[in-house]
Structure formats: C-alpha cells, structure tokens
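Severity: low
Component: inverse-folding endpoint
Summary: output formatting inconsistent between runs
Steps to reproduce: submit the following structure tokens with default settings.
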C-alpha cells in the first residue's frame, strides 16, 4: 500500500509529487454518465433523459441574456484580478471558469428566494442585482460587503468555509415555519453555495443532517471546481459528491457546471422541489477553477498546465457563443455590443475602485458593536491618539 501522505509535497517550493498530480487528474475526469448536460462543449443542444428536450425551447433572446451575463461577469472578474495586481485590492477571488455554474443557478432563483454565497459567487451576486462595485470594499478591506442582504435576497459573503450551510438551513427552516412552503404563489426556497472542499467541513454535514430531518427547503449547490486551494477533489471524497446526498436521505444530482442551460434547468427543478415541500436537494455542479484560488495563490506549484488546457476546451462562454452563431444565426453586431458593454462595465468598475475613500482609523471600532464597551472606548481613544501622532510626518 502506498504511503497515504505521499501526495503531500514535502517541500512546498518543490514540484508537486507524481501522486499529487495523479490525484488532480483523477478528479477532473468527464463527470461520469450521471452528468446532466444540455449544451455540449461543441455548442450543440442535446436531450437528457431526465430533462427531455428542455434546452431546445430556450429562445434566442433568453440565450443571448445568459451569454451577456457570463461575459460581463467574466469581464469584471478579470478587472478585479488586474486591480489586485496593481495594488488597488488586497486580494481578489477569481471565478474564471465558473460563470455557467453561477449564472445558471442565479437565474433560476426567483425574487422571493434567498441565496447564501461563500466568497467566489460574483456571478450569483450579478444575478441578484448586486452591482459589481459593491463587491470591491470586501477585497479592498474597507467593508464587509455593502449591499443589503434582505433587499437583494443575497446574504453577505462568508469566508469561513461551509459556515453558510448552517445559516442557509436555519433560514430555510424559518421559511417553513412562516408557511412559505407549498403550492401557492408565495412559495420560496433557499439556495446555499459552497465548494468541493467545504464538503469536508462539519458545518456542511450538520446543515445536511438538519435540513434532511426537518425537510428544510434548501438547495445545497456545490460548485465542484476540482480543487480546494492545493488539495484535489480526490483527497476530499471516495465517492462522487452528489452521491453523498443519498446517505442523508435526499436527492443529489450532478450537472455539467460549464453548461449554463443544464445548470439553469437542474436548479429550477431543485428550487421548485424545495418550494413545494420536497426539499432539501443537493446539486453538484461539475466545473473547474481556471485561475488561481485567489490572487495570493500560485497553482503552478501543485497542478499541471495540461489540466487547464483540457478544461479550456469546455469553456462555459464559448459553447454558448458557438450555439448562438451556428444554431441561431446570431450575427457579429450582438457580440460587438456585449463587448462594448463589458468595456464600459470594466471602466466603471475600475474608476469606482480608484475613487474609493480610505476609511478613517476609527472604522475598526465603529462597525463592530452597536455600542462600545468602556474598555473598547479607551482602546479607541488610545489608538486614535497614537495614530494622530504620525500626522505631519512625510508618508
Ligand atoms: C473553516 C475554514 N478553514 C479553512 C479556511 C481556509 N480556506 C480558505 S478557502 C479554502 C478552500 C476551499 O475550497 P472549496 O470549498 O473547494 O472552495 P473553492 O475555494 O474551491 O471555491 C480553505 C481551506 C477557511 N477559510 N475556513
Ligand atoms: Mg473547490
């Protein structure tokens, strides 16, 4: 038997071991026969035995809408990366490659549903009407999120891995207690976003157990992007993640996470199951993180460039573009106009970031408690005095 630790690089600066590379490659296979796919990487709409010819009914304007969503989301995501490299953001968390998984799920949510993101869900934020500039404060270190979670029906980002599964399950229980589950027009559900690595967290397990035992109307939406920083999927699980649901007693579905139509169809189905009292449901969106974990990470230390090249062939945006051109005869004017809109968004995003005021030194005290304790008041006064002692010094 091989040494169970052999996949861990002993020297983090050294090349990844053979076992580590193999672990990554095993995790990133085709997704298996259970994968729901409605739009192939070649841009051809296909039937699925569970969803029939659902994709064939998606009209040209609707598909153009999802294309636009994905292109604009990718554009401000790339701008976020560039702003970090230029010293304007402390960190950026890229979503590159996960646009279809997020837009498909995000567009399946109705105005009444509630969503709980982790930290990479910029595409879902976009679908909930959160302006991309509202994400900047988190990554510039000036606030913890500036949107109203209740108004947007989109909770603040959660950095503590898996923790939002507890929040989402609790929220979904509230929806049940308030009679919002059923056949009526007021029915609503909750969707909880997390990653493959998060499935190893206790919080996710507890959320699953509770939601199953009490029929909470929550869709657990796992974006399996194959990596949890440098840890490959193979080191999180011995079974495909969607199969875990069975052990908890609710359905699990694996969907092609790079196929916006499949993600939309499966998410709509799962949300409706939850709204009508058949929740919870687990969705595993099988996708790939095409960039680093964050701008602080260097994936060339632990995975092969070949793997990325393989996934580039499954690009979520390209397959929609091909379908729009080949099957629907959409001409260059549409693509040019989306390009132009994305340039405008990038410029606005950038200008907003550069113009963001630095918060004053009192902010670290003022936004934590409603009322400061006497001890914190004293600490604040001492800190402000100390800070003021630097005024007049050359910066
Ligand atoms: C409780 C907790 N443990 C560890 C971390 C450090 N950490 C940040 S991201 C991450 C990996 C998460 O991977 P995954 O769930 O697959 O999500 P992804 O980043 O791939 O979207 C870890 C371990 C953390 N934020 N919270
Ligand atoms: Mg991951």
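Observed output (run 2 of 3):
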């Amino acid at each position: 038997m091989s040494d169970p630790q052999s996949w861990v690089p002993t020297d983090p600066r050294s090349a990844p071991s053979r076992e580590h590379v193999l672990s990554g490659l095993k995790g990133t296979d085709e997704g298996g026969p259970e994968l729901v796919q409605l739009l192939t990487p070649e841009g051809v709409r296909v039937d699925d035995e569970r969803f029939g010819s659902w994709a064939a009914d998606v009209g040209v304007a609707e598909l153009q809408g999802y294309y636009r969503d994905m292109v604009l989301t990718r554009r401000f995501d790339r701008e976020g990366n560039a702003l970090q490299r230029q010293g304007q953001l402390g960190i950026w968390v890229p979503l590159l490659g996960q646009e279809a998984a997020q837009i498909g799920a995000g567009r399946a949510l109705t105005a009444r549903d509630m969503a709980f993101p982790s930290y990479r869900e910029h595409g879902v934020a976009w679908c909930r009407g959160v302006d991309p500039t509202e994400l900047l404060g988190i990554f510039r270190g000036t606030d913890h999120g500036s949107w109203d979670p209740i108004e947007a029906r989109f909770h603040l980002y959660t950095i503590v891995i898996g923790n939002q599964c507890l929040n989402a399950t609790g929220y979904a229980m509230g929806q049940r207690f308030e009679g919002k589950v059923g056949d009526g027009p007021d029915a609503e559900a909750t969707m909880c976003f997390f990653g493959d690595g998060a499935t190893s967290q206790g919080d996710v397990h507890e959320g699953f157990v509770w939601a199953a035992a009490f029929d909470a109307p929550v869709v657990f939406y796992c974006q399996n992007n194959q990596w949890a920083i440098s840890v490959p999927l193979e080191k999180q699980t011995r079974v495909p993640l969607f199969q875990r649901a069975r052990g908890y007693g609710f359905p699990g579905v694996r969907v092609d996470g790079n196929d916006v139509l499949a993600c939309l169809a499966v998410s709509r189905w799962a949300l409706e199951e939850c709204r009508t009292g058949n929740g919870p449901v687990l969705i595993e969106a099988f996708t790939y993180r095409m960039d680093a974990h964050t701008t602080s990470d260097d994936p060339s230390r632990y995975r092969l460039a070949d793997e990325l090249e393989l996934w580039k062939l499954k690009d979520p945006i390209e397959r929609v573009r091909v379908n729009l051109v080949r099957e629907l005869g959409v001409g260059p004017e549409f693509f040019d106009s989306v390009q132009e809109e994305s340039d405008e968004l990038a410029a606005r995003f950038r200008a907003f970031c550069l113009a963001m005021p630095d918060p004053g030194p009192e902010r670290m005290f003022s936004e934590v408690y409603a009322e400061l304790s006497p001890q914190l008041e004293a600490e604040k006064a001492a800190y402000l005095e100390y800070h003021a002692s630097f005024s007049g010094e050359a910066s």
